[in-house]
Amino acid sequence: MVKINDVAQHAGVSPSTVSYALSGKRPISEDTRRRIEESIQILGYRPHAGARALAGNRSNVLALVVPLRSGIHVPIVMQFAVSVVTAAREYDNDVLLLTQEEGVDGIRRVADTALVDALIVMDIQLHDERLPLLRTLHRPAVLVGYPADPQGLTCIDLDFQAAAESCVDHLADLGHRTVALIGSPPEVYARETGFAHRVSQGFTAAAGRHGLTATSHPCAATPAAARELAAALVRQHPVPTAVVIHNEPLIQPLIDAFQALGHRVPQDLSVTAICPSETAEHTTIPVTSVTVPADEVGARAVELLMRKLNRTPVPDTTLLPPQLTVRASTAPRAA
Predict the structure, then answer these.
(1) Which of 205, 246, 252, 291 could form a cystine bridge with 277, CB 3.0-4.6 A?
(2) pTM, 2 dp
């Protein structure tokens, strides 16, 4: 393992001069700095986190707080995590992933040490118990999600309310008059998770605006639950001719269940979803969807953190507009 002494010897300077070049605490000549940088490049030297913390008062580590609670779809959480890690590496930062359900105690435990410079916090609830601490934290934080009151916080997310409205607008334009929202698992609503409630609000608002008959149905993320709900919906009066699905694992099982009950997609039932584009594209019938832009949200969350660490002003709220892609799962309502 290459050490700072090896870099100093290769560049013909003292170890303290290498340290000054890395930390910027003392001025050194441009020629000396260039030799040190060349030696670092040739030898492949990388200071470990502790050395970086001592030299530059930063650990170059970001905490990603994402408690894996029940009802959370882990694959999409991992998409967000990968995007954060990838973006952080572009700034020469590492990411510490915190998945335990520790609430305030977990954030305080990490923030009170020199282990991390800043935090990205996910799975935000409308009245999240972590918010008072995050507002007073001495380390920068960015929330992926929106609480009921975002004042004093930096938040970024897809505009889930507008996403649901976009799906309903599309279905209404196709002539559908009876629609159903198949939402997240019941426990997600019980926790008042922000994105789930905003989808519900957008769905209800758009259905009311178009004068549609609309019902909402939380659903467990299992094929059995999908079959049970599909059977209940086809017995409903009037029977929905279109659905909005905000429950990624259920998209294919619901299509299968409706078709097994004799409701063809899209001839008898139009299907829209709010999900990653990869999911929408790889169902048996490609699904009209609003994309959940995990890559963009993660990258921009890291960018906001870097700007906050450098004391550059950032917007309090960043809502990414929805992008609806029409595919084969929607069609005009049958006469």
Answers:
(1) 291
(2) 0.83
List the alpha helices (DSSP H) in the chain. 4-11, 15-23, 30-43, 49-56, 74-90, 103-111, 131-136, 160-173, 186-190, 194-210, 223-235, 251-260, 277-281, 294-309
Instruction: Report the percentage of the chain scoring pLDDT > 70.
Output: 95
- pLDDT grade, residue 112 (50/70/90)? confident
CB 8 within 8 A of CB 14: yes
String of DSSP letters for 99-134: -S--HHHHHHHHHTSSS-SEEEE-S-BTT-TTHHHH
Backbone dihedral angles phi then psi of residue 257, each to the nearest 5 degrees: -65, -45
Residue 117's pLDDT is 92
For residue 77, which of 317, 251, 276 has the smallest C-alpha distance? 276
Contact indicator for 84, 104 with CB cutoff of 8 Å: no
Cβ count near 281 (within 10 Å): 12
